[in-house]
Amino acid sequence: MWQESDACRRNNRVVIKGGCDNNKLSGACSPVTDERLTMLPRNFTEEQQMFRAAYRKFLEKEIAPNVERWREQGIVDREAYTKAGEQGFLMIWPDEQYGGMGDHDFRFEQIIIEETANVYAGDWTNTLHSRLVGPYLDRFGSDEQKARFLPKCVSGECILAVAMTEPDAGSDLAGMRATAKDMGDHWLLNGAKTYISNGINADLVVVAAKTDPENNPHAMGLFLVERGMEGFERGRNLKKMGMKAQDTAELFFNDVQVPKENVLGDPTLGFVYLMQGLAEERLIGAVGFLAAAQKAFEVTRDFVMERKVFGKPLSAMQNTQFQMADLRTEIDVAQAYVDQCVAVHNEGKLTAEDAAKAKLYTSEVLCRMVDEGVQLHGGAGYMDEYPISRMYTDARITRIFAGTSEVMKLIIARDLFSDKFAPYIDRT
After folding, report:
1. CA-to-CA distance for 15 and 219, rounded, in angstroms?
2. Are 159 and 87 in contact (CB under 8 A)?
3. Does the reported pTM lie above 0.85?
4. Could you list the active site residues?
5. What is the C-alpha to C-alpha distance for residues 128 and 117, in angstroms, rounded to an integer?
């Protein structure tokens, strides 16, 4: 488990051992203290700052050195999960009886997301495992299901995935064709899913399927499909524009007999269950997108300060200064909003609409940042050996997954033209 000794104290201030060299993909580190703040102060507890220091040290040793190899092989080694699990970094929220810390404070996951992005390891879908899929077991799983699955999820022995998307059903879950038929002592699952993150590595997949398509097309169940179940097959590891190390696969279910004890909650309320997790899913996205934008800014800043044009640094050009000032402002304003969303989420009050705003804006900010970053790098920005090139291709998916930007705008617009709309001056 992580220890307080992984951070040191100096003048009653936590000094974090870490901070990455932006000129290298290796993630080499240098000291970071609060004296280097160039934005509004952030609200993390002393324990969380020490957790950040310990997690950063873990990333330096176990994750950053492997990122390049994982990208080349198209999948993260399973050992990344077990090593994180061994040190208590994989799943924070599960109760101690399952091996976790029993702390649901989202700021722990925010730290994990930010630090992972800082070493160019955003392809490693540890947060999808721990905070996007795992909570379905917490919210809707029985005590028996939690006892059966959570300990190995916490340790990293059991990797999680969720299967919603189908060839003809992405943002529109109503178009789902996968079905599960009640056979008395089990459910018979049939269908196909695509673009499933962790699709190759996953040992346990939460599969959404319609349970009464003829009489109630909205009835949907969530089924726990385990590795090795007869009829459960995986397709190829899909080749993607970016996120090269993240295994993304097609999944096929051909007469899979799912035991009744592998159904999450009510087999007709799966759609409702999925909707309950969307605000957090989009907040996870927003935190990650912004962390990537912060890193892209730093990479670009370092480059333009070193790159000489007409005998002087590119950073001395007014156009560069104005572009970077605009981007710095956008990122910092977005960070203030996202941090506030995290605080509200910890109180259980984050709405779908506010989460949609965070997801929409941060994905757009990230894409602007990496586009300007490539432009300011010039020809170097088009070379794979420069981090900004990979950041550019990795970023494009952010305006698509967890709900496209267009869907986010629909959610926001539906709210602002509804009877719930309140004038700014009346909001508290």
Report:
1. 52
2. no
3. yes
4. 281
5. 14
Domains identified in the chain and CATH numbers:
4-127+147-152 (1.10.540.10), 160-268 (2.40.110.10), 272-426 (1.20.140.10)
User: In 3D, which of 220, 249, 245, 227 has the Cα closest to residue 237?
Assistant: 249
3-class secondary structure, 348: coil
Tens of pLDDT along 206-246? 999 999 999 998 899 999 999 999 999 999 999 999 999 99
The helix (run of H) or strand (run of E) holding residue 180 is strand 179-182
Output the six-digit token pair for 104. 């649901």
Whether residue 124 contacts residue 71, with contact meaning beta carbons closer than 8 Å, is answered with: no
pLDDT at 369 over 80: yes
Residue 385's contacts (CB-CB under 8 Å, 6 or more residues apart) are 25
Query: How far, CA to CA in Å, does 284 sit from each of 30, 268, 383?
Result: 27, 27, 29
Residue 337: both structure tokens together: 């909003």
21/275 Cα distance (integer angstroms): 40
Greatest distance between any 2 Cα atoms in the chain: 78
- The pLDDT-based confidence of 30 (bands split at 50, 70, 90) is very low
In angstroms, the first-to-last Cα distance of the chain is 41
Contact 13, 100 (CB under 8 A): no
Six-digit token pair at 153?
Answer: 């999820």
